[in-house]
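[recover] target loaded
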């Protein structure tokens, strides 16, 4: 697991810290690849949100400024929303040069990627859990979102 630069106790402490964060943020799976070690942590917690952890290119703040315009953050009272399961940085596309996963007016099927929320250098792909029409993108590309914060206004189909 380590090549000698870190002791077993240091790595054990880091893994324990990651596990505690996973519990707090209700993440069921986390993979960390460092120069000295790789670790994949999976929780068997029925209350944990199912989040697919995908590898993606990190995006710098400078690159991110041109990736998207701010969105109107108001939501109608009767609207359904897709909420962020974790705290992190919201990205509408897999890279600055790629098109957004979804836009207002799009119809999405179950399992369709909606966005990425980056937490602790891990790109968490947020997927649709039901068929819906995207009414509005609420979160702002490249900005921090909190766990439970509205990301999209949707209309269930």
């Amino acid at each position: 697991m380590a090549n000698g630069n870190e002791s077993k106790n240091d790595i054990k402490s880091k893994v324990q810290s990651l596990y505690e964060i996973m519990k707090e943020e209700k993440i069921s799976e986390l993979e960390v690849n460092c120069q000295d070690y790789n670790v994949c942590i999976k929780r068997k917690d029925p209350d944990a949100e199912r989040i697919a952890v995908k590898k993606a290119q990190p995006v710098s703040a400078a690159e991110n400024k041109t990736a998207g315009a701010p969105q109107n953050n108001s939501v109608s009272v009767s609207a359904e929303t897709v909420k962020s399961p974790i705290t992190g940085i919201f990205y509408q596309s897999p890279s600055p040069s790629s098109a957004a996963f979804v836009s207002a007016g799009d119809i999405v099927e179950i399992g369709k990627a909606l966005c990425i929320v980056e937490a602790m250098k891990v790109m968490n792909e947020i997927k649709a859990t039901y068929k819906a029409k995207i009414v509005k993108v609420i979160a702002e590309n490249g900005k921090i979102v909190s766990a439970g914060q509205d990301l999209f206004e949707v209309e269930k189909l």
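[recover] notes: DSSP finds two helices and eleven strands in the chain.
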